[in-house]
Amino acid sequence: MPRNPYFAADTGQLTDTRLEPDSRLGALARRLAAIVTDRVQDDLAGVGITDLRPAHLRIFAALGHGDGARVTEIAERLGSTKQTVGPLVDELVARGYLHRRRDPADARAKIVDFTPGGITAAEAARRSAEDIDRQWADRIGDRRLDECRATLWELVNEPADPTGGS
Question: What does the buried/exposed string (b/e) look like for 46-70 if buried means 16 or more CB atoms within 10 Å of the residue's CB?
C-alpha cells in the first residue's frame, strides 16, 4: 500500500510534510526550530559535546543565566510538566551538566543549576544560536529579522482562539 504523505502513521494525525511558501505557519516554525537545533547540535559536536539531545537544550534555555530554578519552574517556563522535565534534569545531572542544591527559601525543595561543564555547554549553544541569528540578519537584513521576531513574539503571546471565535 503506498504511503499517504498527508497521514503520519506513528501519530494518527493528518500532516503534510512537504513545506511550501504557503505552508501553515506552525509547520514552518517547527522546521525553523529544527534547523536551529540541528545547527546548534552540530556546533556542539564540533567542540566535543555529543551527548545533548534537543530536549536537553530546551532545559538549558529555560534555566537561562539566573541562579538556578526548581524543576517546577523549569517546567512552567517550557509549558511542560514536572513529570516530563524531571527525567531530563536527572539525565543532565547524571551527565555532569547540572547539579541540585537545597533551596535556601525551602529546605525541602531543590534548586537545579549549571555545573562548570554545563555553563561551558550552555555558552557554546548560546554562541551557536547567536551566530545563526547573525547569519540570518546578513541574509535578510536586520529590519526584516526584527519584524520576524516581533511577529512571532506577538503570535506566541496571543495565540489563535482555540474555539474559533474572535
Answer: eeebeebeebbbbbbebbeeeebbb
Q: How far apart are CA 34 and CA 53, in angstroms?
A: 12
Over residues 43-91, the pLDDT tens digits come to: 999 999 999 999 999 999 999 877 899 999 999 999 999 999 999 999 9
For residue 17, the model assigns a pLDDT of: 67
CA distance 14 to 116: 44
Distance CA 139, CA 88 (A): 35
Q: Do the strands 98-103 and 13-14 form a parallel or antiparallel pair, or are they unpaired?
A: unpaired
CA-CA-CA-CA torsion sign (89, 119, 35, 154): positive
